[in-house]
Hints:
heterodimer, A: 88 residues, B: 233 residues, Rossmann fold
Amino acid sequence: MWQARIYVTPKKGILDPQGSAVSKALGSLGFQQVSEVRVGKYLVVKLEAPGREEAERAVDQMCRRLLANPVIEDYTFEIAEFLGRVNH
Amino acid sequence: MKFGVVVFPGSNCDADCHYVVGDVLGQPVEYIWHESQDLAGVDSLILPGGFSYGDYLRTGAIARFSPVMRAVETFARRGGLVLGICNGFQILLEAGLLPGAMRRNESLHFQCQDTHIRVESVATPFSSRTRVGQVLKIPIAHSDGNYYADEGTLRELEEGGQILFRYCDSQGRVTAAANPNGSVDSIAGITNRQGNVLGMMPHPERAAEAQLGSEDGRLIFESILAYLAGKSV
């Protein structure tokens, strides 16, 4: 069993209204050092696969076909063997 | 002329579309369930507004994989008329039947209000009953209507005459203040290159009778009818 942690974020250069609003809110709380916030999604997917390579290939396909919209979003993921306990 | 209104779990403007086609225009119309793979011989399809699959993940992202969408794609590729309204537009984008994507509204608010949109082209099956530059008053109701396409795609849309509607003020001026959601180029509705698939965020079915404050939306349905009638002669 494998566990993928997937991060979906707005592409560079794409206006992110949620990120801008959070950034402004942080500024008004006094966190003047914040220069940018981008809001994305974090997904945890558990899957069966014979090996790491197969698991990575499957997760990559999932991201391309459904989990991220390539027009406006980028994705990255990490894969680890899942040993049966909650692991995130 | 037979119309089909596709119903996804979470569609909520399906009955309004059905009513406008059936009662206001007096045309035969059928609901088509999202699990259906048979379009029942319709001449034109409407993907209505709503929150299909709860808008989970992204608007339209899951509906796009409904069984019915395969039939919708085939219908569209064969030149069938497909009108996607609001969530229907979002589904067409996710399905790749129209280019671009939707972002959260710039205001981060659900915008529910009358808008004015300017007709940019009458050379489509959806706008033959309008005039270029005509201002239509049609309401919007959405959180994710902030249309985005990269510069190359925008140029293609512009050059191909695919930008059908732009948000404007009541005088037809396209200004930042009249853009309710931050859409690039004030885009409110686009067609595919062939012109037989239209996606628009405003709801023409909510503006099809004088009692509802505007009849401008009916022009879009009447244009579809005129096109289909011309084709069947």
